[in-house]
User: What shape does this take?
Amino acid sequence: MVARGMVLAGLALVGLGALGAGASAKRAEAAVKTEVVEYRHGDVVLEGYLAYDDAQPGKRPGVAVFHAWRGHDEYVRGRARQLAEQGYVAFAADMYGKGVRAKDHVEAGKLSGAFRADRELMRARAGASVERLRAHPRVDATRIAAIGYCFGGTAVLELARSGADLAAVVSFHGALDTPHPEKSKPKARILVCHGADDPHVPPERVAAFADEMRRAKADWELIQYGGAVHSFTEREAGSDPTKGVAYHERADRRSWESMLSLFEEAFEAP
Assistant: This one.
């Protein structure tokens, strides 16, 4: 795979993934259908959320969406609906288990920490969600991507490092470290959307990630958004960057556009 690592400092303008004006108009009229989906990883019962445009003919590319550290919530469901409006079959995954949601940051830290301490479990649980999506009759099993936010961003990067059969992965303000970077063997295209001023992922970790990708000869891209901190895509994070977490409208918008552009490339028919 060709290595195309690129670090873009500051707020770089990125074009929308072009699907044509006619396709855009059609999506605007689309009726997105949703389903709550129960599935399993071993003995653990999980509950995901599927979104798709039932007016789209034939099989469509699938995108698995992974939640932040509090667990499966309306935020990832909303992102799944947004992807469905773009013509994808989207599946908001569940990493913790049906009904398991953190009540506060302490509990969120414990839930996510169990997976950070066991990356094989993280990869296996995330992989079960991807395979549930892949098996859906509306999905083109050869065109699958995964995106994630914060904890979910870490999960999709671990999937990529494992060599999972994915066209692309996108991490939004996710942690970039991994216990064994020397074992990374990504096949997927990788896009990391990172707040340049994120205090939770300091510059040395960003540099280590870039070095890991170079050594793995990955197809990767890292975009750093000036002035953005952690959780820059989440309005609920507030507007005060001095707290280390804050919404940043431009970074949110531009990172989404970069993701769509990558999908256009990754899902191009052979």
